[in-house]
Amino acid sequence: MQLLCLSNGHGEDVIAVRICQELQHHQAAPELAALPLVGEGRAYTQLDIPMIGSVRTMPSGGFIYMEGRQLLRDLQGGLLQLTWAQFKAVRRWAKRGGVILAVGDIVPLLFAWLSGAPYVFVGTAKSEYYLRDEAGWLPNRSRWEGWSGSAYLPWERWLMSHRRCKAVFPRDKLTTEILQQWSIPAFDLGNPMMDGIYPKNPAPIFYEPDAELKEMQRSLIVTLLPGSRAPEAYENWEKIVRSTAGFFETFSDRSLLFLGAITPALSFDPLRQTLEAQGWVEQPLELSVSTLQLNDPTALAFTKNNATLILTTDDYNLCLLKGDCCIAMAGTATEQFVGLGKPAIAIPGKGPQFTPAFAEAQTRLLGPSLILVEHPDKVASVVQQLFRDPDWLQLIGENGRQRMGEPGAAARIANCLMEQFESSGNPQKRVD
C-alpha cells in the first residue's frame, strides 16, 4: 500500500511523522510519501520520507488565519501558484492508487477529497471544547460560533462523512462523540501531540517519609514558553521575563528555577539582551544546573536574587516535565504542558499568533488548566494562589489529562488506519 501524508503546519508535520514512524513498524508497512502544504516540512526528513511536490515557506509562516495582512503577504509571495502546483501533484500521485493521511484542518482534508483517493483525517485544529464542555455550551463563545451544532462546519462534516473517508481521528473524546452524531467514522484514540514527551523508561517513584519537607525545600520550577516564530517570540519573551520580577518578593523564602524552552529557530542574542536589561547576570552553566541533567551543551544560565534561569534549545521535553507551572505565550507547547496535568499562565501578546483573541480561545480549549493574566506583574500572585489551593491543582490535573489524552495515540491511530484499509481491501486505482 502507498500512503501520502498531507499536513499544513510544523505541528501537523510532527504529528504526521509520529504516525508514520508507527506505520513503519507495521508488518505490512506502507510505502510513504509526503507533501507539507505549509512550510518546508523539515520534520519529514528524519524519516527520509520523499516529497511529491513543491514546498515553500510563506511570509506569514502559516498564520494566515490570524490576520488579514498575513494572507495578503502570502498571496503576494505566490501562495496561489504554490497551492495550484501542490494540488496537481496530489492528483498525479493519487492516480497511482494509494491512500491519503490528512493532518490539520480543512485544507489537507479538502486536498484529500479532491484527490479522488481514499483518505483518513487527523483533526488537530478544531475541538468542541472551543464551544462547550461536558456540562454544555460555553457562555463566552461568540454568537456565530457553533451555529451549525459543532465546531466543525457542515462542509467539513460532509468531507468527513464521504464514502472515501475511512476514519477520522479528532483531538479529544468530546469532539469524537459530537462528530459521531453525523455518522462520521470518528475514533477516540487520543492526541498524538502528547506522544514522545515522557521518557521511554521513566525512573521509579519512591515516596519517602519526609517527602513534604523536601518538596518545600526544593526549587519552584517555572517553565517559560515564548513561542516559536520570530520576531513575535522575542516580544513575547520580554513580557515573560517581566512577569518573573514578581516572583522574587512573592516567593522570597524559596529558590526559583526558570526553564526557557527555546526553539532552535530562534537566536539566543535577543533573549540574552532582554535578560540583562532586566538585571539577570550570566553565569557558568555547570555551576547552576548540576542536578538538572541537561543534555544541551549550548544552554545558557543566568541568576538574579534567589533565582536561576536556563535557556535551552535541546531540552524541550525536560522543560515540560520538570516545570511545576508555566508562563506561556505559545500554541502547541502550552497544550502539551497542560496535557501533563499542570497549570499554565498565559499573557496575551500582539501576535500575529498569540493575540488576545487567540489567548481567549485557548482558555476555552484548555478550560481551567489555562489561566489568562492580562498584565505580567500579576503572574506571580496567581501562581501563589494556585499552590495554596490543592483542590484547584487537582481539578487542573484531571482536566488537562482529559482534554489532551494519554500518550500512545500515534500508535493507536496507525493501527486503526491499517485495519480500515486492510478490512476494505487494497485501494483501487481511481480518481473521481
Report what the structure shows.
There is one protein chain. Strand 5 and strand 6 form a beta hairpin. The longest helix has 19 residues. This protein has 432 residues and is α/β, with parallel strands linked by helices. Strands 10-11-12-9-8-13-14-15 form an eight-stranded mixed β-sheet, sandwiched between helices. It has a five-stranded parallel β-sheet with strand order 2-1-3-4-7, sandwiched between helices. Strands 5-6 form a two-stranded antiparallel sheet. It has two domains: 212 residues, 3-Layer(aba) Sandwich (Rossmann fold); 194 residues, 3-Layer(aba) Sandwich (Rossmann fold), CATH 3.40.50.2000. InterPro entries: Lipid-A-disac_synthase-rel_put (IPR019994). This is Lipid-A-disaccharide synthase-related protein.
What would a concise description of this structure say?
This is Lipid-A-disaccharide synthase-related protein. With 432 residues, this protein is of the alpha/beta class.
